[in-house]
Amino acid sequence: MSVLLRSFPVFDPHFVMMRATVLLMVIVTGLIGYYVYVPIPNTVSEPWKLMLLDATFRGVQDMCHLAQQVGLGHHLKALNFVITMFEMLAPQSSETVEVSDTSFDGVQVRVFEPKKVDGELKRSIIYIHGGGWALGSARMRSYDHLCRKMAKDMNAVLVSIEYRLVPEVHFPEQLNDAYSATKYFLQPEVLSQYSVDPNRIAVSGDSAGGNLAAAVTQQLVVDSSIKFQLKLQALIYPVLQALDFNTPSYQQNMATPILYKHVMARFWLEYLNGDPSFVQAMLVNNHTASNLSQLTSVRAHLNWTNLLPQSLIKNYKPVIQVMGSPQVIKALPALLDPRAAPLIADKGILQLLPRAYILTCEHDILRDDGIMYAKRLEDAGIEVTLDHYEDGFHGAMIFALPPTNFDVGNRIMNNYINWLDKNL
Ligand SMILES: *[C@@H]1O[C@H](CO)[C@@H](O)[C@H](O)[C@H]1NC(C)=O
Ligand SMILES: *[C@@H]1O[C@H](CO)[C@@H](O)[C@H](O)[C@H]1NC(C)=O
Ligand SMILES: *[C@@H]1O[C@H](CO)[C@@H](O)[C@H](O)[C@H]1NC(C)=O
């Protein structure tokens, strides 16, 4: 190309323009290539598609950080605005499923009801959407579609909770919203109003929604005012702890799209309303250094050298600091609160929980959160189905729909719904 360019006379204004255009194109292409290209393990489902999805997501995230820097408001609020702008659906009933937005004890919910048949009691699933406690909505196309499909395929009543998000609220408000709505729904007169069988109700959620679903389940079993307990909990690639950012899956997938390790740590800090400058300390486990006595009682609950099989531990070594940064745990006692980190709950609570389905993906920093929880539940005598996807990545299920159409997302969704259909 340079040979060709040099054959033009340099003083020709036309040529100067052309050269500038070519140069600009080279720079833009380079930048796009640099931006789009991330190393992706070849065992992940449809790697090129994932790379493009990831670049789009990162591009929007970067623009939102920029918006925050120039004073246009909180970056997560901007991000949620962009995500939901194209995605929000009004409640649209179909021939088979009636959809309505209402509120349960002051919390917004979207309810999907299959056609009523006199005298028939239906099964029900309470669904809590994901998005790092800051993003997403029950009204989003992907979650609307998921719940609609479950309602139709299972002839079940779906309650999708529209809990409040960061930055409007922080821990424990997201959980409180999810809990209030769930508790309201579990009242005998409300269940009867929706023709729901009180013995066949599950709670479920993905990612941060899986975190909330797990916490709701733990809270319900010790709430003496609850008349009907859940039959099942189903957690899709849940986030369950913020004490070890160096589990084998965190180490293996720290730079795997679409959920990066540093992004997850920031979501945690936003959820717990912590100082953003703590993030570096947390990434190297300085917040859980071995000389911090507050952690003594929970260490065993996330000791992955015990809780994970050797096939996942491989050659990964625990990252344990000796002194670390004691100010983090001091400022954020919620890090040690099982309502934020259900993985660290005592065995006494785990023993009371309903049967569980836990879905994990190999290419996901949160894989080991889910697998350790499955192990702890099993050790507590709870029946657990662990459904693992070797080619799965974090968030795959919500990318099952067009235009992303991820094959692994569709498999996840179908297997998850089948499991619920068989066991609820
Ligand atoms: C985790 O468990 C292993 C094996 O029982 C033990 O040697 C190790 O000290 C434990 N680590 C922590 C941090 O408790
Ligand atoms: C841990 O180490 C730091 C730094 O030396 C010290 O300030 C702190 O008191 C130690 N904490 C405990 C519980 O020993
Ligand atoms: C982690 O803690 C050690 C002290 O144990 C300190 O030297 C180091 O700078 C800390 N790293 C970060 C990123 O906070």
Number of discrete helical segments: 17
Count structural domains.
2
CATH architecture of the largest domain: 3-Layer(aba) Sandwich
- Structure ligands: 2-acetamido-2-deoxy-beta-D-glucopyranose
CATH class of the largest domain: Alpha Beta
Number of strands: 8
Please state how the strands of the largest beta sheet are arranged side by side.
1-2-4-3-5-6-7-8
Shape designation: globular
Q: Into which percentage range does the β-strand content fall? A: 15-25%
Summing up helix and strand content along with how strands pair, one would put the structural category as: alpha/beta
The main β sheet shows up as: 8 strands, mixed
User: Whole-number average pLDDT?
Assistant: 94
CATH-derived topology of the largest domain: Rossmann fold
* Helical residue percent band: 40-55%
Contiguous uncertain segments of 5+ residues: 1-5
Distance between the termini: 65 Å
What radius of gyration results from the CA coordinates?
23 Å
GO molecular function: acetylalkylglycerol acetylhydrolase activity
InterPro entries: AB_hydrolase_3, AB_hydrolase_fold, Arylacetamide_deacetylase, GDXG_lipolytic_enzyme, Lipase_GDXG_put_SER_AS
Subcellular location: Cell membrane; Microsome
Organism: Chiloscyllium punctatum
